[in-house]
Design goal:
Number of helices: 10
Distance between the termini: 8 Å
Radius of gyration: 19 Å
Low-confidence stretches: none
Mean pLDDT: 96
Number of domains: 2
Helix content: 25-40%
Number of strands: 11
Largest sheet: 7 strands, mixed
Structural class: alpha+beta
CATH class of the largest domain: Alpha Beta
Length: 307
């Protein structure tokens, strides 16, 4: 039996809708893969999902990803998966993507590591498609670690970006769910040219700031003029939480993916803890809904075998 861990991730990173993402150190998902007598994939058990995820591998992102990998490798060997969910469902921090990534890493190790990282990425993306998405901005950082830029989703063309020393993140996860499809529908299919130009400028500047280690430029770049204004209403108290994060010293603050999680980047773990506490206080003042708080360094290491 092989167990693999895949971290959660923050996608979009304010300005980079569908093209930017970074890995967290924690939380994440663990998937165990064991050989089985028959061919194909079965899911033996899922823990931490309150019985909500399907055991049918074709409808489960981990199962579908493992199936895609076995097909790609043209093997008749079979695997049984056990999924341990450490990430909340529909949270905006890459829950479905982490399961898919952990599955392909575990299965690949079980089979003797025949697949490249590029093949693992494509198979994990195929698993994500079982959950209704074909975007690498969660899967790629969860697999590779660090920051990524997805120049193209089909075919995948992933650019790995440097992580400035000490860069940390606070993530506040309100106990509400936002379905990605519904959040995407809010955006429509057209963007004003002036907004597109501003967003392109922010994406380019953010990438430059990572290479240059320019914290001030990174802070100025963490602005979303396209998705955040339309999705902020899905998260109770979003704007007070954002204001509290910035006042506490965050470089920037925005929705993680389609929400409801809210992330804030900070120059150090110490600052990130202070920012996270401020976000939690602001949220509690605005909403009676509970919320989780995670604080970690930006995860330089992606998915890995743990046993």
């Amino acid at each position: 039996m092989i167990a693999a861990y895949a971290p959660g991730s923050v996608s979009n990173v304010a300005c980079g809708f569908d093209v930017l993402g970074f890995a967290l150190d924690q939380p994440g998902d663990v998937v165990e893969a064991a050989p089985q007598d028959g061919p194909g994939v079965t899911i033996a058990r899922i823990e931490g999902d309150a019985g909500r995820l399907p055991l049918d591998p074709a409808r489960n992102t981990a199962g579908a990803a493992a199936m895609a990998l076995l097909t790609r490798l043209e093997t008749t060997r079979g695997v049984s998966l056990t999924i341990h969910k450490g990430l909340p469902l529909a949270s905006g921090i890459g829950s479905s993507g982490a399961s898919a990534v952990a599955a392909v890493v575990a299965v690949n190790e079980l089979l003797g590591r025949p697949a490249t990282l590029e093949i693992l990425l494509e198979c994990a993306m195929a698993g994500e498609q079982a959950g209704g998405a074909w975007h690498p901005d969660n899967v790629a950082p969860s697999l590779y670690g660090g920051f990524i830029l997805a120049r193209s989703a089909n075919p995948p063309d992933i650019v790995r970006l440097p992580v400035p020393e000490g860069l940390a993140c606070a993530v506040l996860h309100p106990h509400v769910e936002v379905q990605t499809g519904a959040a995407r529908a809010l955006l429509g299919d057209q963007v004003l040219l002036r907004d597109a130009v501003r967003q392109w400028g922010n994406v380019g500047a953010l990438v430059a700031s990572l290479f240059n280690g320019d914290q001030a430029l990174l802070s100025r770049s963490l602005e979303d003029v396209i998705a955040e204004p339309k999705r902020a209403g899905l998260v109770p108290g979003f704007y007070p939480v954002k204001a509290a994060a910035l006042a506490a010293g965050a470089l920037g603050c925005s929705l993680s993916g389609s929400g409801p999680s809210v992330f804030a980047l900070a120059t150090s773990l110490e600052v990130a803890h202070r920012v996270g506490e401020a976000m939690q206080r602001a949220f509690n003042a605005e909403s009676a809904v509970g919320a989780d708080l995670w604080v970690s360094l930006v995860g330089r290491q992606g998915a890995r075998v743990i046993s």
